[in-house]
Amino acid sequence: MARGRRSNNPKTNGATLGFEAILWAAADKLRNNMDAAEYKHVVLGLIFLKYISDAFEERHTQLQKEVDQGADPEDPDEYRADNIFWVPKEARWSFLQANAKQASIGKLVDDAMLAIERDNRSLKGVLPKDYARPALDKQRLGELIDLIAGIGLGDAENRSKDILGRVYEYFLGQFASAEGKKGGQFYTPRCVVQVLVEMLAPYKGRIFDPCCGSGGMFVQSEKFVQAHGGHIGDISIYGQESNPTTWKLAKMNLAIRGIDNNLGPEHGDSFHRDLHKDLRADYILANPPFNSSDWGGERLREDARWKFGVPPVGNANFAWVQHFIYHLAPAGIAGFVLANGSMSSNQSGEGEIRRAILEADLVDCMVALPGQLFYSTQIPACLWFLARDRKNGRFRDRRGETLFIDTRKMGVLIDRVHRELTAEEIAKIAETYHAWRGDLGAGNYTDVPGFCKSAKVEEMRKNGYVLTPGRYVGAEAQEDDGEPFEEKMQRLTAKLAEQFDKSAGLKADICANLKQLGYIICDKG
């Protein structure tokens, strides 16, 4: 077979600013007229294949140098012992790139995916295998393989910099943006995930996301643990996802980062087929679908999870809330995203469910988010934080209190329709919560008008159990300009009188001009 032309692009080492954007622009150019939802699996599957092949080849080279010491470069166990996937010869990137210009490249990629799944049980049924389909332009597929070949993903230096993770995460975000509403089903904006993770601070324990999308909550949790000097083995990952293709994205996303996980043997609906029924998690992080009306609630009217009231068939918001509570450990904490309506709605018994949850002393913190954060919806959103035991020794006794934080004025526009919270804003939100709940070394908490308020349960009762932060934090304090009131009023009234005089003069000029044209309107009684 003719050998494919190698890319002339030097391999990116991750130091180049914005290399993810450059790579995305090139890959998107090759998309042509293919739908983003379809192209996503083409690109991410190849990136995954390139990563595991790079890691394999590096270990293969090491083993070749150790043959005299009994090493066998073709023994799969030599790789598995180091948490590296075994890649058979027909699936190695060098073989695929050498054949990238062949008409059969689609079938060769499919065969490579099948071979990897065959030899690595944890990837069984996970990888995309439809590259041979007639609708996929094979010339563009070959060009895409050459493009991805130009970036080193799986060697030791780039693994340490999380190059693959950066590329994969960036591409997930770009595909979510390109897909619009559909994209939000598999991707939660990174800044929103960071707020949840930074506030919950999951140093160790069981982390659960029953609607895990592509696994972003788990990835950020891992990054949090690493950033604070912990060990990945200190957290255990549990998840569930109802969409089969999104479940595969999550499995790939975690596999390339070496994150052990239990996402169930396959995809499954959390309401009707709970794959972790006996799990009681230390931390729950989630972004369930907003206001879902087709969740099959009519078949679950007697479910044991509805301790605080049966959720309405037409809206799954409080079905999700009670599902989270059901899965919390005795000292567990949950942080999740919901539509703003969940804080105030009284429709179909939702107000009574919210009242029961509040009276059970579970609501720790409520955060109002800025608009335009999500790719999938323009519906305003909020964050809920629930804690099973608010008097335990980890933090101060917070019984009968709830912290309200209003971040609606935060964030910066990254394009015409999307906003992001900055790192400084995320830190401010998390530090406020930590100071309020009494984290060691977090400093003292004080209410800040317009931003945060610690409210007693009596105040929430007076407000009809409405949990909208804006109702509690009040207006932002205005700085005193130092000008005495009497002097300011004299200055402003003098200015107003001057403007009235100008207005009268303008009116007279207009009336005179109109009169010359035969229109007399100013002299009428």
UniProtKB/TrEMBL annotation:
One example of a Gene Ontology biological process annotation: DNA restriction-modification system
Span of domain DNA methylase adenine-specific: 160-481
InterPro entries with a match to the protein in the record: D12N6_MeTrfase_N, DNA_methylase_A-5, DNA_methylase_N6_adenine_CS, SAM-dependent_MTases_sf, T1MK-like_N_sf, Type-I_RE_MTase_Subunit
Keyword list, A-Z: Methyltransferase, Restriction system, S-adenosyl-L-methionine, Transferase
One annotated GO molecular function: site-specific DNA-methyltransferase (adenine-specific) activity
Coiled-coil residues: none
Keyword Methyltransferase among UniProt keywords: yes
PROSITE patterns xrefs: N6_MTASE
Name of the protein in its database record: site-specific DNA-methyltransferase (adenine-specific)
Native source species: hydrocarbon metagenome
